[in-house]
Amino acid sequence: MVQYLVLTVMAVTFLHCAENAAKTSNKTPQKNETMTVQHYKVPCQGESVQLCYLVKTQGQTDWEYCYDVIQGFEYEWGYVYTLEVNKTTIDNPPQDGSSIALKLVKVLKKEAVTERFELPLSMDGVALLEKDSGEWTYFQHIPVLVPEDLATKLDQAQTGVFQHGDKKQSLTLLSVK
After folding, report:
1. CB 163 within 8 A of CB 174
2. What is the mean pLDDT for each group of 10 consecutive residues in the chain (177 residues)?
């Protein structure tokens, strides 16, 4: 009798947990929207310091941080993208998880950019432009060409002015502020 009662309680608990898991993963689809993605990523603070997309949707004039992954999107530094994305609201997102899921529908436009742009050189006291084994990197993985005369000024600088490098996925430091 006790075994029967224990099995019943376990079965009810299992079904309740399965039902809650199904509710947690429910997604409410929204319509597709057009999104423009900036040609560089910026440091941002989510669960930890990370690189975020800068994005605008139709009708927006200001760039905003996008902390989410865009499923199916292969981003390259140096290009402004116009994307059609499917934006889905997650009804019961996990704690510290996003309530939005983005999925690439189509790349509408990909334009190479040569303009200069600014990035912070540190965030919360942590250097973002570092030299390791003789090579400079931004955020530990983006190769950066740093002229010798600028390398000596990095300790006092807050911001770097960059341009996309000749090599794919690399940057050139032009000046510091």
Report:
1. yes
2. 37 40 54 95 88 95 95 96 95 83 97 96 92 95 96 95 90 97
